[in-house]
Amino acid sequence: GNVSLKQGLLNLCSLLDVASLRNKKIPIYPGCDKPIIQNFNKEKPYSSLSSFHNLNAYSLHERNLITNHIQKEHAVLALIRMVTNEPNEYTIVCLGPLTNIALAIRLDPFFLSKVKNVVVMGGCLYAKGNSTRVAEYAFNFDPEAAHIVLTAAKQHSVDHPHNTQPKLTLVPWEVSVEQGLDWKFYDYLINTPPVNELTHLMKELNTIKELLFRKSHESIISRSVTNAFKTNESNNNKNDPTNSLEINKTENSVTSVDPLSLETPVYTSNAVLQYQINATKFIMSDLYTLVCALEPESVIKEYQDLDVDIELSGRYARGLTCIDWLGSGQRTLNARIILKVDKDIIKNILIQSFKETPSTFIQKVPTASEPLIVKLKSKL
Question: Whole-model pTM?
Answer without folding.
Answer: 0.82
